[in-house]
UniProtKB/TrEMBL annotation:
Domain of life: Bacteria
Annotated Gene Ontology cellular component terms: membrane
Segment forming the signal sequence: 1-22
Protein name stated in the entry: Glucosylceramidase
Pfam families: Glyco_hydro_30 (PF02055), Glyco_hydro_30C (PF17189)
Keyword Chloroplast attributed: no
GO molecular function list: glucosylceramidase activity
Domain Glycosyl hydrolase family 30 beta sandwich: 407-466
Residues in Glycosyl hydrolase family 30 TIM-barrel domain copies: 73-404
Single GO biological process annotation from the record: glucosylceramide catabolic process
Classification via Gene3D superfamilies: Glycosidases, Golgi alpha-mannosidase II
Species name: Ginsengibacter hankyongi
Length: 468
């Protein structure tokens, strides 16, 4: 009888502990951004509460038993122009900015993935590659390869970022090979001459090794930024068959021979041409070197990412660029659009990351290159000397980067037409739900999880991240 009594007391104690834990986990933290800027990625004082009440409002049901892709990180492009502005800040101002962007405490937004340009992008103050030569000269063995201008800004800034987050993932993307490798001997447009495919593969190997020597590990590279848009300066036209052959016969074997583990990603352009990566991945001799496909969303529909995933489910999908800007009516912030379309749209369609374009620019959007540089690329932050202000890209990225840490896994949630949403389980077993209200008017809805319900309301065009 004594032991039975102890047994039942133990059961009661365990039940009490379980109920306490359930009550603890029934609270939902809310981080909110409103259209009128009354909240800008602001943690709300009042938590939501899971309970048993039901109502007739739309329901977002979160189901952690159904899982999808794991996430590798979220962030921005650290262009040469971004790095130039950041390195020119005084040490105190620079540390404050980098802490807010890459830190994870308080209101820091915890950026965990960056894209660097291999050579210059169109957001540098001048065009360069790492092997620029006088006309008529070549360097097929890359004897004159040098990281050059990046040593002044990109590399020093990256070292300070790595001090804050040593595990940050880094993607490298070229806008153009050295012009001596190209059919038009120009930084803009042209095509890569087949006789220089092997030399260009060595160029990538040199880049990865020299960055590693500086303490910067390149996790992945794309073969060419926007290969079907030769109008930027710098840029290159690289067709699907050309990219396939370059990887199959040159880049893949060069990485293998050099023992390089850096992932190779293909395409790195808009969603209107899913046939480009699919055709490359259809070739098993090329596909064996490829980790996945990279996309932008200036054209096409986000569900094209799922089309590519379904064609080759063994390969990953990445979202590597989208400009997120708002110039007019600065009294408001229509954040539901980039969050609903890009953050939610990309991750619901198998993307393992989301990168926005770009981290920082000046008040005049400079620097950018002549003959095709972007003169309207607003940064996530605008840097003016030692001061900076945060723009719509910063806040839209914050709603996912702070909470959906690398290693998080997307879980199921039903998508409502006017309330696009996406849900995750974090490595710490937190649940994260991001919801955008695409209506102009407030919407009240129910969050349903494990049979419990919580009621939430979002103002028109607002976004919230719910964490429990």
């Amino acid at each position: 009888m004594k032991y039975k009594l102890q047994y039942f007391l133990t059961l009661i104690l365990l039940s009490t502990v379980s109920n306490v834990k359930a009550q603890t986990n029934s609270k939902i933290d809310v981080w909110l951004t409103n259209r009128d800027k009354s909240a800008l990625f602001t943690r709300q004082d009042k938590q939501l509460q899971f309970g048993s009440a039901t109502n007739d409002n739309p329901v977002i049901k979160v189901d952690d038993k159904q899982t999808y892709q794991s996430m590798v990180g979220f962030g921005f492009a650290l262009t040469g122009g971004s790095a130039m502005h950041i390195i020119n800040m005084n040490a105190g101002s620079r540390l404050k900015l980098l802490q807010e962007v890459f830190g994870t405490k308080g209101n820091d937004i915890g950026v965990s993935y960056l894209r660097l340009s291999i050579g210059s992008s169109d957001l540098n103050d001048h065009v360069f590659s790492y092997d620029d030569l006088p006309d008529g000269e070549t360097d097929i063995n890359m004897d004159k390869f040098d990281l050059g201008p990046d040593k002044k800004d990109v590399i020093p800034v990256m070292k300070e970022i790595l001090a804050l987050n040593p595990s940050i993932k880094i993607l490298g993307s070229p806008w153009s090979p050295p012009k001596w490798m190209k059919t038009n001997n120009d930084t803009r447009g042209g095509r890569l001459k087949p006789e220089y495919y092997a030399a260009y593969a060595k160029y990538f190997v040199k880049y990865i090794k020299q960055m590693k020597a500086k303490g910067i590990t390149i996790d992945a590279i794309t073969v060419q930024n926007e290969p079907l848009h030769p109008g930027n300066n710098p840029s290159l036209l690289l067709t699907g068959p050309e990219e396939k052959d370059f990887i199959k016969y040159n880049l893949g074997p060069a990485f293998k021979a050099a023992g390089i583990q850096t992932k190779i990603l293909i395409y790195d352009h808009n969603a209107d041409r899913p046939d480009y990566p699919i055709t490359i991945l259809d070739d098993p001799q090329a596909a064996k070197y490829i980790d996945g496909s990279a996309f932008h969303l200036y054209g096409g529909s986000v569900d094209a990412f799922t089309q590519v995933h379904n064609a080759h489910p063994d390969k990953n999908i990445y979202f590597t660029e989208q400009m997120v800007v708002q110039f007019h009516d600065t009294s408001r912030m229509i954040i539901s659009e980039p969050v609903g379309t890009i953050i939610i749209g990309a991750t619901r369609n198998w993307c393992r990351n989301v990168l926005e374009w770009n981290l920082a620019a000046g008040p005049d959007f400079k620097p950018y290159t002549d003959r095709g540089g972007c003169s309207m690329c607003q940064g996530a932050v605008t840097i003016d000397g030692n001061s900076y202000s945060k723009n719509i890209a910063y806040y839209s990225m914050a709603h996912i980067s702070k909470f959906v840490r690398p290693g998080s896994v997307r879980i199921a949630s039903n998508d409502l037409e006017s309330l696009p949403n996406v849900a995750f389980t974090t490595p710490g077993n937190k649940k994260v739900l991001i919801v955008a209200n695409e209506n102009n008017k407030p919407q009240t809805f129910t969050i349903s999880y494990h049979g419990k319900n919580a009621s939430a309301t979002l103002e028109g065009k607002a976004v919230a991240t719910f964490v429990w």
